[in-house]
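Friendly challenge for the regulars: who can give me the structure tokens for this chain first? No prize, just bragging rights.
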Amino acid sequence: MIRTVEDRRDGDRRGGERRDRRELGEPIIEFKGVWKRFGKTKIYEDLNLTIHKGETLTIIGGSGTGKSVMLKCLLRLLSPDQGSITAFGEEITGRDEKAMLPIRARIGMLFQGAALFDSLNVKENIAYPLRQHGWTDEDKILHRVQETLDMVNLPGVDHKWPAELSGGMKKRVGLARAIAIEPEVILYDEPTTGLDPTNVKNIDDMIIDLQKRLKVTSIVVTHDMGSAFRVSDRLAYLSNRRIDWVGFKDEVETTDSSSVRDFIHGNLDE
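First reply, four minutes later:
Bragging rights claimed.
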């Protein structure tokens, strides 16, 4: 039997308290009328989405619909063909690399597969964005590396190499690197892909804990509906080249959109 949203209420708690996010914070990131195509393949047609300060919003949708592309457009790793993307009240479309640095300094990202540098040990992987943003004091860098490893429950692994780490450990090191620069927004691209159930829960718990501890805004891309319901305040359903539905997760059961209900229930663990 498929478990319903109601059966997943235990995922709605942080520190023993039920979350109630009906009063959303101010908009912090906005996609307005975004269009994107790769060759003849249309990815977005008039895509619109607002992410609010302090929330955890999860983007869901089928494979190949462009979920991860949204994160890359936000970081200007890809450029939309038309439309507007704003972050922290500033327009980012059309910015060059230099002009993007102040924006990227406020956003951390956990890439799919963690994307660690194989030629650098854990310490240097985490230190990399710090050095990129002007940190030069080695004692402060080491302290920050150790601090972030403590946050992801991996103390003492700073001298290990990526090849020595399990899949779950790589994800956590990637997360430590993402939070090293003390971002205001954290992006998670398929954070639980390839992990066993124990490590999936560990990553979910860390997303929840870091959002609470650091007061960040979190944007998660995932195909794992169980994880989505555990970590999210709201869900945004990407379908037909646009955001087809967005709402609080407990509104799934009452939405008029049968495609949203069918997609979510069809992808929940049985």
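The radius of gyration is 18 Å. Residues 1-20 have pLDDT under 50 and may be disordered. Your move, everyone else.
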